[in-house]
Design goal:
The protein has 424 residues and is of the alpha/beta class. The chain is built from 14 helices and 19 strands. It is 30% helix and 23% strand. It binds zinc ion (ZN).
């Protein structure tokens, strides 16, 4: 392992509240030192940072990685390419694969698949129920021992209240969170867009925004009842965020994330039935987008996840109502988040906090910081370099980006995993 000094960078470490110019020294794959005026230690290669931002490798708390069972859409190896290009060094993998991650051996397998890439730590979620079918609870204790970081049924909402109550109790005893796709299944079934004028004009079956708030309200009540910890994924509506804000004020173990489409796009992105903008939950009205952006700034939203959902041409080249929902998100996670900084909504430190140390804490991993002695998972980026998202040109296999054609500022220049350069 070669030692190096990354010199003349803007050091950004939200965990330490650090935002200052300086250098960072990596020895034996670990962060040996950082700060201003480290000098030029002998026998150490110097990499010129050129004033770019150096932050911890990003921690993405929600992605589908295509394995097992969906390799034509994405593999851990192809996702690792997209992740490295996006500055991501740790990702939490959803368990609703084929088969689902409902056996300890599968949880271990996915972790190992990440290790094989040499560039990406994969932290698997355990399936809450067998096959993620929402019926019989999986062996949570065994999954936890195998390394499951939390429990969820992935893109499927945990529907029955009784099941969710049990899940919060059991997972609470194991010190794990339940991650909910907050959408009432009976209200969402068959829907393709957010219910309202636009869906009506396009002739699309609608999902009312209340489907999200109803589930969030119910699960907050169950968290209060059980003392368990619930985490809501990709929260996308003002009404649900109001409920989360109140639950936090009350001191309940309630956290949430959102994904870039919900603060960067609104429902008009589906235009004339653009299936790449068909997501789950569906894109919302502008007022909801603004509420999500505000909740990033005020701390109601804890983290930003890519919610990467690889889909191929066969999934998307269908009439809108039949097309598969989901967007690719790994390569655009950082740059779309930075758009919120450029528009003045967020400080850079807060933006990076939601992409590093906070998701790391929620997943129970110690990565996501620049602490001395920790593995050198690093992301170097130029916050001003312009580029344009282009479906078909993204790294990795999945090309179904809802941001196709979007002009962005902020480009990853280099990504390091345990001190080894894996991108740039
Ligand atoms: Zn979901």
């Amino acid at each position: 392992m070669s030692d190096f000094l990354l010199a003349d960078v803007r050091l950004l470490d939200p965990a330490a509240g650090l935002d200052q110019p300086g250098d960072i020294l990596v020895r034996d794959g670990r962060i040996a030192d950082l700060g201003a005026g480290l000098g030029r230690p002998e026998g150490v290669a110097v990499i010129a940072g050129g004033g770019a931002v150096l932050c911890p490798g990003l921690v993405d708390m929600r992605a589908e990685l295509g394995e097992p069972g969906g390799a034509w859409r994405e593999t851990v190896a192809s996702a690792a390419l997209a992740a490295a290009a996006g500055g991501i060094t740790t990702v939490a993998a959803l368990p609703d694969s084929q088969p689902a991650l409902d056996e300890p051996a599968l949880v271990r397998l996915l972790r190992a698949r990440g290790e094989e890439t040499g560039s990406l730590t994969v932290l698997p979620f355990g399936a809450l129920t067998r096959g993620c079918r929402g019926e019989e609870m999986a062996e949570l204790g065994l999954l936890r021992e195998a390394g499951a970081v939390a429990f969820t049924d992935g893109a499927r909402a945990i529907g029955p209240a009784r099941l969710m109550r049990l899940a919060l109790s059991y997972a609470g005893m194991l010190g794990a969170r339940i991650v909910q796709h907050p959408e009432d299944p009976s209200l969402a079934e068959g829907g393709a867009a957010t219910e309202g004028e636009l869906a009506t004009r396009l002739g699309l079956p609608g999902i009312p925004t209340a489907a999200e708030a109803i589930m969030v309200a119910r699960d907050i009540a169950l968290a209060r009842l059980t003392g368990g910890a619930v985490h809501f994924a990709h929260v996308s509506t003002a009404s649900a965020l109001t409920l989360v804000r109140r639950a936090k004020d009350e001191g309940l173990s309630v956290t949430c994330d959102t994904a870039p489409p919900y603060f960067d796009l609104n429902e008009t992105a589906i235009g004339d039935w653009r299936t790449y903008a068909k997501l789950s939950p569906p894109l919302r009205a502008e007022a909801d987008r603004q509420a999500v952006a505000a909740a990033l700034a005020d701390g109601t939203i804890d983290a930003i996840a890519s919610d990467h959902q690889p889909r191929d041409a066969d999934d998307k080249r269908l009439p809108f109502a039949q097309a598969a929902a989901g967007g690719a998100g790994l390569a655009t996670l950082l740059a779309v988040t930075l758009a919120q900084v450029q528009s003045g909504g967020l400080t850079l430190l807060r933006a990076i906090e939601m992409l590093t140390v906070v998701p790391a804490r929620l997943l129970g991993t110690s990565s996501g910081t620049l602490s001395r002695g920790t593995p050198a998972d690093l992301c170097l980026f130029d916050p001003e370099r312009a580029w344009k998202v282009s479906a078909g040109m993204l790294p990795g296999r999945a090309q179904n980006t809802p941001f196709d054609g979007r002009a962005l500022e902020g480009r990853v220049l280099g990504t390091w995993k345990s001190g080894r350069r894996v991108f740039g």
